[in-house]
Task: inverse folding
């Protein structure tokens, strides 16, 4: 019996599949949950990817790996927001099963090129080949075939979180090997000196700039940080295709508040005895 080919074994990225189908890819932020079960909850609630926040939460590599491996097993793409463009753990995360890297506060093409180098295999980047991969069930696949398939599956987004990043949009977007641009709204507004002004004209201008730059360079426009569904719908209508819908913190808090409110509502409505 011949060995299966990469086309049979390498797991596709559900986010890329959504984008290629001209649909929206929705993600769930992960900051407090430390087990793979969050992947099943993401899947059952209609999310396409997890956004594991290794920049603002204390995740270790083994935990990221466990969550990522559960995610790919249930058809959810595990993405990680890394510490920085120079995060030396990026290759380890990818080898552990991560299918997407989101790098914060990119302000130059040089930063973007460094990210491509560590995220993509040759000839696109310089990522080291470990050999048999989790993405093909550790089956022996021809190296060239494996590298091509994983370069296609793994997606790399540069976060635009400052005025400097907006000013350098086109030079960043022109770097070969990138897959998307991502507006990090909260830090962008803080950098502009207007923290929390989520519905100001500056947001519309930033979104428009990222969507247009993405279109010019064949990239996926993404965004996160909108606190209300009305704003998220507005972003989608503006052209955003890779969107954070919620986070584990927000979901648990809102669910808890709703549970208490429902109980109190019924207590208040019930006749006293």
Result:
């Amino acid at each position: 019996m011949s060995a299966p080919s990469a086309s049979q074994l390498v797991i596709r990225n559900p986010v890329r599949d959504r984008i290629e189908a001209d649909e929206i890819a929705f993600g769930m932020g992960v900051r407090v949950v430390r087990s793979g079960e969050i992947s099943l909850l993401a899947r059952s609630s209609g999310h396409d990817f997890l956004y594991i926040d290794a920049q603002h939460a204390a995740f270790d590599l083994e935990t990221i790996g466990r969550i990522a491996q559960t995610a790919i097993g249930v058809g959810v793409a595990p993405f990680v927001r890394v510490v920085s463009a120079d995060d030396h753990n990026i290759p380890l995360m990818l080898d552990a099963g991560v299918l997407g890297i989101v790098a914060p506060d990119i302000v130059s093409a040089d930063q973007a090129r460094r990210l491509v180098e560590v995220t993509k295999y040759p000839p696109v980047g310089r990522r080291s080949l470990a050999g048999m991969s989790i993405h093909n069930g550790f089956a022996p696949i021809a190296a060239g075939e494996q590298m091509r398939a994983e370069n296609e599956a793994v997606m790399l987004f540069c976060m635009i979180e400052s005025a400097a990043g907006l000013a350098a949009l086109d030079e960043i977007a022109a770097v070969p090997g990138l897959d998307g641009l991502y507006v990090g709204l909260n830090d962008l507004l803080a950098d502009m000196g207007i923290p929390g002004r989520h519905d100001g004209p500056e947001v519309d201008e930033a979104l428009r700039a990222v969507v247009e730059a993405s279109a010019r360079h064949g990239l996926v426009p993404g965004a996160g940080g909108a606190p209300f569904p009305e704003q998220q719908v507005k972003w989608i209508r503006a052209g955003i295709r890779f969107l954070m819908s919620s986070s584990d913190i927000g979901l648990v808090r809102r669910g808890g508040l709703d549970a208490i409110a429902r109980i109190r509502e019924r207590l208040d409505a019930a006749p006293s005895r």
Observations:
- The mean pLDDT is 92.
- The beta strands are 25-30, 49-53, 77-81, 100-103, 155-160, 180-184, 220-224, 242-247.
- Residues 166 and 206 are 7 Å apart (CA to CA).
